[in-house]
Design brief:
Blueprint (H helix, E strand, L loop, with lengths): L8 E7 L5 E13 L3 E6 L3 E4 L4 E3 L4 E6 L4 E8 L2 E9 L3 E3 L4 E13 L5 E4 L1 H10 L4 H20 L8 H12 L1
Parallel strand pairs: 1-10
Antiparallel strand pairs: 1-2, 2-3, 2-4, 3-6, 4-5, 6-7, 7-8, 8-10, 9-10, 10-11
Length: 177
């Protein structure tokens, strides 16, 4: 698999299981690009929803994508600390032609607060889409196993939840900005 170069720009494209484009983040900067991990950053970037509606992100964010895990993690730098939004999703693929990181969003999300407490979100949306889009039982099993891993990372302060991770990558982002 080809990976993007640090300092280059990429789009982030989220799809649904049906193949429909769900959401696009424009102009994220690649901070680290390997076959297994991509770390990106953006600040006040345009986001386009599947219905064409667009909005701007409000704060700097460090985005962590892993080719081995079925989740991605966004660390948002806010005045009261780092807030995380974690999407249960397929592992990413990087499309060199489109300069885009792509993944399938599987509805379940985990919101993590600066004190590392967290909430599981959108279980109802997951159940609706699971029936509507016919998620295979294998996907359901994988997602709940990966949710356990994600919760372990949160509780243990691993990966993007480790002290300094988001701040250090944000400092790197500022060198490109």
């Amino acid at each position: 698999m080809v990976s993007p170069n640090a300092g280059s720009k990429m789009m982030i494209q989220s799809y649904k299981h049906s193949g429909q484009l769900h959401r696009v983040w424009k102009n994220s900067v690649v901070l680290k690009g390997t076959e297994s991990i991509i770390i990106g950053a953006n600040d006040r970037t345009k986001v386009i929803e599947s219905d064409g509606h667009s909005w701007m992100t409000r704060e700097p964010a460090i985005c962590y994508f892993d080719a081995k895990h079925w989740f991605n993690i966004i660390g948002m730098l806010r005045d009261d600390g780092i807030h995380y939004y974690c999407n249960l999703s397929s592992p990413f693929v990087y499309d060199e032609k489109d300069e885009a990181l792509k993944y399938i969003d599987y509805d379940l999300d985990v919101k993590v607060f600066p004190d590392m407490t967290f909430h599981l979100l959108d279980e109802d949306e997951y159940e609706e889409n699971k029936a509507l889009m016919h998620y295979p039982e294998e996907i359901d099993s994988i997602l709940y196993q990966q949710l356990d891993i994600l919760i372990h990372w949160i509780r243990q302060g691993k990966g993007p939840f480790s002290p300094g991770f988001v701040d250090d990558w944000y400092e790197m982002y500022l060198t490109y900005h």
